[in-house]
Amino acid sequence: MSTLGILPPDERLVVATVRDFVDKEVKPVVRELEHADTYPEALIERMKELGVFGLAVPEAYGGTPVSTSCYVLLTEELARGWMSLAGAMGGHTVVAKLLQHFGTEEQRSRHLPRMATGGIRATMALTEPGGGSDLQALRTVARKDADGYLVNGSKTWITNSRRSGLIALLCKTDPGATPAHRGISLLLVEHGPGLTVSRDLPKLGYKGVESCELTFSDHRAPADAVLGGVEGRGFAQIMKGLETGRLQVAARALGVGRAALEDALAYARTRESFGRPIWQHQAIGTYLADMATSLTAARQLTLHAAREADQGHRVDMEAGMAKLFASETAMQIALNALRIHGGHGYSTEFDVERYFRDAPLMIVGEGTNEIQRNVIVSRLVERGGLDV
Question: What is the CATH number of the domain that holds 214?
Fold first, then answer.
């Protein structure tokens, strides 16, 4: 049975529709757009039409929600075509989930209907120039006054920050709190005076979709901007949100790894050396066998975490495992695909060089793999071992 067989018929249709979109509309243009680092406006509009931005929005707010397993497989399909497209909807999905789980009814009613259609897109602003994985050490501060909050600070590596109408900003509303996480809140902010996209960051891969630095200089946020309406809960909220984020990154890695494997297999079947297709040479055949095995294992690990999430379980360890294993797998598959292509793998006339440039993002993004190992071992000790 194919992987899609685990989904109900309506969700299989959703994934199949996105797969068709990738094959017919993304693949013919991705090389040109990626090399030019051009924002894929037309492709994003098609994703809106297909309902991709409403997949994490409840029906009551105009969305078409799907299971986490469906979301993972759909994200894999997008990333198989171009990882940047999957990235363009990743933060949006996490913010939708955060609103669904923690938002006030007023916040949900205000934001989710527009997010469901892609009328506004959302992103998260967590990382700061002075620190990466240590979110409790952040320095962006939102001070409350009679008119709401005055925000000062900076964020970096914020995807879609120019085009996102809603930003889930992690900041300190009580800088003196002990421990520090008790003073952290998530603010739902929008572009306006005092919020500047200060620069676009040059990147190895992940082209087309921008990653920027944001500067907040006396940016005014309304009094009801705090997610859930209560200060000091932002750290716990974002930790929950990152479970979805890390599953999405794992799925992106699956897509990149699958694209690299498919290209390598097609090349090995048609390229001949010493009078026979190169897949028949033991070295190349071994590469392909290991690539397929590792990718299958990564997908099963990711789907296991997705099923646990759908059952309402805490999945920080499972999502961390999936993100860790899938991203390292994608990197190795991309490298092996380049080796199989030989000199052609180093040429921009073939897509494997793009996979090789895109794969490292999943290793360092949404919490580095070193951080994932810390999360895994902490939960492992807390649980007293693995559940079997």
Answer: 2.40.110.10
